[in-house]
User: What shape does this take?
Amino acid sequence: MEQQAKTAAAVVYGEALVDDFGDVQVVGGAPFNVARNLAGFGMPPLMVTRVGDDANGARMRAEFGRFGMSEAGLQVGAGEPTGRVQVERTGDGSHRFHILPDQAYDRVQSAPMLAALAASPVPAAVYFGTLAQRSEGGRAALQALLQACPAPRYLDLNLRDGQATEATVFDSLCQADTLKVNEDELMQLFDWYAHISPGTADMDSLDVRMACAELITKFSLASIIVTLGPRGAVHYSAAGDVTASGPAEVPRMADTVGAGDAFSAVYLYGSAQGWPLAQTMARANAFAAAICGIAGAVPQDTAFYQPWVARWNSAA
Assistant: This one.
C-alpha cells in the first residue's frame, strides 16, 4: 500500500487472532485492529505479538504485508497454534464466542521483543489490553516492555468473560496513563474500586464525574475515555475537565465490529500529531462511525484511509 509520511511510531502489544466461523476465518484481535488502522494512517506501529507456523499464522503475516507493517515485533512459534476464537452462529442471528486457551499470543518472549523495541524509533505511546495477559508469560513480557519503554501508556481494558482476573485489571490500571473503557467496563470498575456506582445514562452527572475522579486518583491516571456507542464518547481528565463528543453519523450500518479499536487508533494517531483533545475525540468518533458502515473491523481496501488522512492534513 502507499504509505503516508512517517510519524512517531506506537508500540502495540497483544493478541493477533482469527475469528473462526467454520466456513470463514476473519483476522482480528483488538490490538491487531488498532495496529492495522495506525498503519493505514501512515503511522505503522511496532506490533508485538506471536503466531504459529500454520495457515492462520500465514493469514496474519499477509496482513502485515498488506498494511506495510514491519514484522520486527512478530514472533513465530513452531508448532504453536495461532490465536483463534470459535464463533458459533445461533438461531436468533447472534453469535457465541469461544476464546481458545493456550494460543501463540500467550507465549510472547521478552528477549526478541526488547531487541525489536531497541531497534525501533522512540514510540509516542504503548497500547495494551488484558487478554494477552491471561498467561504468566504474557504478563511477564508486557512488564518487560513497560519497564523498557517510558512512553505514555494507553490501556484498552477490553474485558472478555473469563479471560482476565480482577488482579490483572488492578495491575493494568496501575501501569496505565490513559484508560479506555466502554460503559459496561466502567460500571465494573465502579463496582470494584469506587465508593459509588452510578448509572451511565448521564455521563456528565456529578456522581459519574466523582466516581471517575476517584478512579483517576486511585490509579494515578491522566485520563479516562468512555466510548458510548451511538452516543459518542467522553473524556475525563485528572484536572477534572470533561470533554464530550457526540454521536457521528453512520450512513449505512453494517456492523459495530472494530469500532472501539478504530476510535483508539485515531486517538493515538491524533495524540501523536498534537491535535487538540476536542478535535481528536470528534475525529475518532467519526472514523469509528465509518468503520460501522463496512463489514468487519478494518477495510478490505487500504485506500479507505486516504481521504481521512488527506482531510485531516488539509485542516491542519
About this structure: The domain at 10-315 is CATH 3.40.1190.20 (UDP-N-acetylmuramoyl-L-alanine:D-glutamate ligase). The chain has one domain: 10-315.
